[in-house]
Amino acid sequence: MRNSYLFTSESVSEGHPDKVADQISDAIVDLFLSKDPEARIACETLCTTQLVVLAGEIRCKGVYEEDRVEWASNEFWAPGAKAEIEATVRATVKKIGYEQKGFHWESFRFENNLHGQSPQIAQGVDASGNKDEGAGDQGIMFGYASDETPELLPATLYYSHKILERMAADRHSGAAPFLEPDAKSQVTLRYEESKPVAATAIVVSTQHGKGYDEGAGEAELHAYVRQVIADILPAHLLSDETVYHINPTGSFEIGGPDGDAGVTGRKIIVDTYGGAAPHGGGAFSGKDPTKVDRSAAYMARYLAKNIVAAGYATRCTIQLAYAIGVSEPLSLYVDTHSTGTVGDDVLEAAIGKIDALGRLTPRGIRTHLGLNKPIYSKTAAYGHFGRKPEGDFFPWEKTDLVDALNSAIAA
Fold first, then answer.
1. Could you count the other beta carbons within 10 Å of the beta carbon of residue 88?
2. What percent of the chain has pLDDT over 90?
3. DSSP classification of residue 387
4. 22 touches 380 (CB < 8 A)
């Protein structure tokens, strides 16, 4: 590792067009899981000026009547289901706060192109006879943890998220009425000996009301953003040498899906580790937890976080790999980046000894983490990791595996 370097991560707000799409897709996941915990959902969303389009595959008892219709049809939903889907989409956009001419929750055109799940996919994934449930797709998934923050998330990403979360809270409460939903942030930190020591540059671009791009309005917006940054970042990271770029392009009145089309799954680095760790390429939102793109990535984070929380490393990356229709992972890889107190092979072996993990099969992961629940809408903005586990939400952020790891390593 270099002794001194700069590193940058970005975040985007709940009103960013891609995040609007992610939140809609995950609201659909939650809707179907609330009807059927074994539902299969793959929901993609496109949003643009006054238009939202859904596409994908569904299998859900009592909602999509697959026994009455050829699987690729969109015509035979249970009574009221299509209306409930549309109402869910509109409520999601309303909650974000879009009531603008170019994108209004009540008046955008809506297209529902969801249909049944392919039986050829289902036969590879479903459990049958002596065959355990297989992975919903092939792929590689990564998990990561670092002791840079108490949440064991890279500091650059953590502070980028928190800046936008604070701004969204102030917008919703009315404390910052000049803010509109779309925004982006970016934090650059200087690291010494792998620890963040100074913020060298911070970028915030936020959609705003009319007149807040000039004169007194612009000054008020800039002062507000500077204060948010000062409230979020630790004081020792900020100095007179920190460079601020606030709405560097000037006016930002037209934003959200009216300013740029949004599509599910385009913010995978924002969703995970801000570029501080590898990414397998699979997005999370819109997918039920049989899709290992989602569930195995959550498990990999859970394992990496518990390894760091247990004191076995200050940084940890974990990779899992799966094949479609095959239940157990093809590989498990642990890398503690030369910060480990025991060998990486020792940690790999210890994970394999923990029976509660269910051999890291898709069903084992879902059972251990309790993923067959409508818990996903909260994940779709401000990151899937580094969040506080509360009740059924964000169970992969718990550090309740420490004792089991200790016992497995000592055995």
1. 16
2. 87
3. P
4. yes
Which sign does the torsion angle of CA 58, 61, 65, 67 carry? positive
pLDDT given at position 90: 98
CB–CB of 315/308 below 8 Å?
A: yes
pLDDT exceeds 70 at position 336: yes
Cβ pair 319, 277 in contact under 8 A: no
Averaged pLDDT of the chain = 94
For 54, the token pair is: 């859904």
Nearest to 136 by CA among 286, 302, 23: 286
Length of the chain equals 411
Look up residue 277 and give its two tokens: 């760790």
Q: Determine the Cα–Cα distance for residues 327 and 310; give it in Å rounded to an integer.
A: 28
- 40-48, strands of its sheet edge to edge: 109-116, 51-59, 40-48, 262-263
Least confident of 77-86, 106-115, 210-219, 367-376: 77-86
| pLDDT tens digits along 207-250 | 999 999 999 999 999 999 999 999 999 999 999 999 999 999 99
Buried b / exposed e along 29-65 (16+ C-beta atoms within 10 A):
bbbbbebbeebbbbbbbbbbbeebbbbbbbbbeebbe
The residue among 74, 90, 77, 80 whose CA lies nearest residue 23 is 90
Residue 203, strand partner residues: 186, 245
Here the tokens at position 289 are 């937890």
Q: Confidence band (pLDDT; 50, 70, 90) for 402?
A: very high
Estimate the share of the chain in helix, then strand, then coil, as percent rounded to the nearest 5: 35, 25, 40
What is the C-alpha separation between 183 and 155, in angstroms, rounded?
Answer: 19
Phi, psi values for residue 240, rounded to 5°: -65, -15
Q: Are strands 103-104 and 4-12 parallel, antiparallel or unpaired?
A: unpaired
* Residue 330: pLDDT over 60: yes
User: Is residue 321 within 8 Å of residue 139, measured between CB atoms?
Assistant: yes
CA 251 from chain centre, in angstroms, equals 29
Q: What is the pLDDT of residue 325?
A: 85
Q: What angle do CA 244, 246, 251 make, to 5 degrees?
A: 155
Q: Inter-axis angle of helices 215-232 and 155-173, to 10 degrees? A: 130
By annotation, the residues acting in catalysis are 16, 18-19, 44, 57, 184, 252, 260-261, 266-267, 287, 291, 293
